[in-house]
Design goal:
single chain, 149 residues, alpha/beta, five-stranded parallel sheet, 11% strand
């Protein structure tokens, strides 16, 4: 088996263990590797515009807000916006700040005709540390993966 197959099987097993309603769950490092190995794979960043502007962006990611800032209003056009940017057969990996909104986005997308959806665990900033701060435990940025301010 190839590396891509191994990564996706691992993510699918993890997804079954977590009981998620989509294909699986990837760590940030695994998601980056899948993104590099799988032709047509898309990383969908569902954070807010404020997060992209103030915290950082991932070059090449599709940016579609799950909720707006500052009112946290749900994006009623999320699926149509996703359909404009990603084919129904594409392997989609959803990422947010910590993995919660991306879980919701992966769930909705998998119910909306996308069968190959994965959540990126830890998100962009990771979990809070003992001081309640993000960016020091886990996450895309902490893993040293590509991003820009």
């Amino acid at each position: 088996m190839g590396r891509l197959t191994d990564l996706l099987k691992l993510a699918q097993e993890r997804g079954r263990e977590l009981g998620v309603p989509y294909a699986g769950a990837l760590t940030p490092q695994e998601a980056y590797e899948v993104w590099q190995l799988a032709p047509g794979a898309k990383l969908v960043d569902v954070r807010t515009r404020a997060e992209w502007d103030w915290v950082g962006r991932i070059p090449g990611a599709i940016e579609i807000e799950w909720q707006s800032y500052p009112d946290n209003k749900a994006n009623a056009h999320f699926l149509p916006q996703l359909k404009q940017q990603a084919d129904g057969e594409a392997l989609l990996m959803f990422l947010c700040r910590s993995g919660v909104r991306s879980h919701q986005a992966a769930t909705l997308a998998s119910q909306g005709a996308y069968s190959n959806c994965y959540n990126v665990l830890e998100g962009f900033e990771g979990d809070k540390d003992a001081n309640g701060q993000r960016g020091k435990i886990g996450g895309w940025r902490r893993a040293g993966l590509p991003w820009r301010s």
